[in-house]
Design goal:
The chain is of the alpha+beta class and 248 residues long. It is 39% helix and 15% strand. It is globular, with a radius of gyration of 24 Å.
Amino acid sequence: TSITVARHLEDDVFMIYGVPRFVITDNGPEFDGSPMRNLAAKYGTKILYNARRHPQANPTERTNQTIGTMLRSYVKENQRLWDQQLPQIGFALRTSVNETTRHSPAFLNFGRELWAKGDEDPQAEPNLQTPSTEEVAQRAKKMQDLREIFKEVKKKMEAAQKVNRKYYNLRRRHVEFEEEALVMKRNFVQSDAQKFLSAKLCPRYVGPFVVSKKISPLIYQLEDQSGRNIGRWHISDLRQFIARGEKI
C-alpha cells in the first residue's frame, strides 16, 4: 500500500542514506497516494513518475535484469527459496565496481568499501581516543578527495548519458506537442482467444486524445474526449492526430 511504501522510504532510505532531491517511480497506485505526496512535501523532495509503458526511463528496471541473472545463478534447481538470496545479491551489487563510475555504490554512498569479512579491515578495532591533529588533517583530506571523486563520477555519468543520448536520437524523430493538441496513442492490447481477439489485427494507434499538460518535451499528460485522465505517456508512443480529409 501507499502507507507501507512511504514508511519504508522514510525509515529505511531517507533516515539512512539521506533525503534525495527526487524519487523516480512508475505509475502504480502505491506510489500515487496521499502518503507519498505528504512524504515528499514533508522533506522537500520531488516524485517523478515514469511515462506509462516506458520502463526505459526507470533505472530500477536495468537493476532488476541484473538481479534476475544473479538469481538464476544462485537458485538453480530449488526455486522456492529465491527470496532468501536477495540480501547476499544486494551486498554483491553494492560492492561491485560500476563500469561507468569506476567505483562501487557502497563507496560513493559511505566513502568507504564494505568488508566481506571482519578481519579484512585493518582498522576494525575502533579508536575511541580523541583524534590527533594529524588524524584530523587526514580526515579533512579524505573528505576533500571524496568531493573530487564525486565531481569525477558526475562527469563520467554525464559523458555516458551523452553517448546514450546520441545513439537514441539517431532513431528518434524530433517532434513536440503543445497543450490542447490532439494526438493518437499507441494501442497496447493483448490477444485474447476467448474473445477471438488478435493483437496483430488491432489498430496500432487509438484516439484522438487531448494533451492536458506538457510535463516535458518527452512526457505528456493525456485526457480522453470526456475529460478523463489516462495518465502520462512518452512521446515515442504518440502520433499527431490528422482528421480525415485534412492535409499534412
